[in-house]
Amino acid sequence: MSRFKQILVPIDFSAHSTAAFEAAVKIAEAFDSKIHLLHCYQIQPGGISPYGIAIPSNYFAEIRDAASQQLAEWQEKHVPAGISVAASTMSDSPSEAIITVAKEIGADLIVMGTRGLSGFKHVMVGSVAERTVRLAPCPVMTVHAPESGGD
User: Fold this and answer.
1) What angle do CA 46, 48, 52 make, to 5 degrees?
2) 48-89 residue pLDDT tens
3) Which domains does the chain have, with CATH numbers?
4) How far apart are CA 87 and CA 75, in angstroms?
5) Longest C-alpha distance within the chain, in Å?
6) pTM of this prediction?
7) Which residues, given as ranges, of the chain have pLDDT below 70?
8) Which among 75, 1, 2 is positioned nearest to 36, based on CA atoms?
9) Are 46 and 8 in contact (CB under 8 A)?
């Protein structure tokens, strides 16, 4: 019986999340696990002004569709043959979405990057990764991307 049947990997398209995915693939190959990719996109309500201007109704759908498309393209580029992968997107704060999806899919392990697209070391570790480690219903493995100058 596999120790890690379901591995959740949050993806924000950064080098750190890609490194986390690569680590998850090695684990999945060793334990014959399924990987679930999760991309969180947050829509800031900043577009609503005090002037009563409404955001067009298709705005949120277009953002959701663009996030799903970008995840599908990332998946096509990075997922090796023979790896079982499911993917989803959520419009929620990353740490909340990670915890929610981990519970929903019965994740046995979360593998995530220590930093995201922002590149801010403490902000990312201090917020998303740290919060996930504290609240996750399963073990969390954090992965650093190889250092490359400006990251």
Assistant:
1) 160
2) 566 667 777 788 889 999 999 999 999 999 999 999 999 999
3) 6-45+53-143 (3.40.50.620)
4) 9
5) 60
6) 0.84
7) 1-2, 44-52, 116-126, 148-151
8) 75
9) no
